[in-house]
Description:
Layout: E1 6-14, E2 20-28, H1 30-37, H2 46-49, H3 52-57, E3 61-65, E4 73-81, H4 84-91, E5 100-108, E6 112-121, H5 123-132, H6 134-142, H7 147-159, E7 161-168, E8 173-179, E9 186-195, H8 197-222, H9 229-234
Parallel strand pairs: 1-7
Antiparallel strand pairs: 1-2, 2-4, 3-4, 5-6, 6-9, 7-8
Amino acid sequence: xxxxxxxxxxxxxxxxxxxxxxxxxxxxxxxxxxxxxxxxxxxxxxxxxxxxxxxxxxxxxxxxxxxxxxxxxxxxxxxxxxxxxxxxxxxxxxxxxxxxxxxxxxxxxxxxxxxxxxxxxxxxxxxxxxxxxxxxxxxxxxxxxxxxxxxxxxxxxxxxxxxxxxxxxxxxxxxxxxxxxxxxxxxxxxxxxxxxxxxxxxxxxxxxxxxxxxxxxxxxxxxxxxxxxxxxxxx
Length: 235
């Protein structure tokens, strides 16, 4: 893993109420991509490694650029969510909830709408999950690799990995740049407090058209009608 570099970017964008989009971009330099594909052993494509079929079945749009000519390889995932539960389910594809968790809330009145999104990230738990997983330990032992060597590889991989976390609303954006060997917890929060302009415009137009309709109806009721020739003869 020496010389490997991996850069990732996770962007969560809030749109209406609790709906929005998640974009994840992972960029691997050639040594990192080669290590992930296991080019020295039983080589696989990045599509196979990341199981793109399963991701697509889960609702992600997936785009992979798998290079072996020295250029960086890229994996880009996009998904939409309608509420907090769906957003949590999407993020669990990237990390367990004790590593990456969120709180999403939306409250509104007749005239205003307030959105709040808070993300809690503990990268140190990701490292611990690799080192404490019994299945991983058994696989390491079966492969003949010393656990201390495996721990050293994990530490090296984490130190060469970075994450750029971005949160967006229609009125605020925040970001945090996090290294894979970060030991402190990261909290990021965005809020949006806005007037429901579209709703108010719709109400305004409805009232305006209602008044216009009543006025036209009243005018037609009070306008005297011209008598036809037959009506004149009768009178």
